[in-house]
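Input.
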Amino acid sequence: MSERSRVGWNGYVSIVHELRDAVIAGKILPGAFFPTERELCDRYGASRPTIRKSLDALIDLGWAYRVPNRGVAAGRGILPGSTRNIAVIHAGQPWFTPLLDLLRTGLAERSWTLVEMAGTPEYPMEEALEHAQAHDVAGAIVWPYRGFVDGTRIGRIVRQLPIVALDHDLGGADRVTFDHEAAADTAVTALLNQGRRRIAITGFCDMLPAMLAQYRGFLHALFRAGALAEPRNILPVSLSGMQAFDPLNLLRRLSDDDYPDGLLVFPAGIGDYTRRWIQESPRELGRDIDLALLGGTAVNEAMPTGTVQVSYDYKEMASLTLDLLEARINQPGRPPHMEVAAHRVVQTRDLAPGQRTLRK
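Output.
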């Protein structure tokens, strides 16, 4: 009998479906090995390339994985969860609380239950995701908080569990992020519009793409305005893994005769610390220097003079996240999607021109 007649008109697809259905039915348990390529060739009357293509498709869908020197084992696949629980995995940082509350409310409105799995930056996301998967959650929302992960483990889980990553990429999962480059550009442009020309950047620094995009936005705004960008005006006070701020370089720079007259600060939560550091320097906020805070959600009515804030719309991020998650649960085989939530200038406190020290 010909290969076409044995495996059906669509060739390898019918083999994929039959082997997948065997896993779903429990005939092949997760972790158990599929028959060898030769055995599958005999079973389906198919060529070895067709069998290999079928196994590769099962691997891509999360229904199988290769074990070196042993064969191909059954995976879990993206199966409908037996619960209405959605895991939310993050590092337990205080600034995440507003978004967490929005996700909890939105999930409840859609008859889902949020299961919080907060950890620490030292707690591997891989283990958190595997823990969530072992507890049969219907899906997961993850704020990736580690830059270096086991890509193989993450990729396997992404193929097996509906996941939406927040802000940062996570192994090809659906993602909701912000346009960090445009937001930083908007913040620096606000400082330029207030007459500031020697603008520095401070706050947190790491190697994640979102952070690099903020630096691009900072430089783009300066270059477009013909303002000076100098290496000595790159003044982070915290790097990945640091447990405390180190403002020494910032304080030294504020003491220079040609001190920066504008500061882009991110995240916005470092704004209060930055204002205190300015108070420790010879400079006065609103007269000698203005701040642009990048991030945050709430409008601070006590925001002092000389400060602008570009806010990220976490409410929209939460809504987009839940939409993507439900779509992934209902259509597990669709290609990964990315959505971008909005940002906007939410508040400005300024001085009259005669009260400010503007520099050329």
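Residues 1-5 have pLDDT under 50 and may be disordered.
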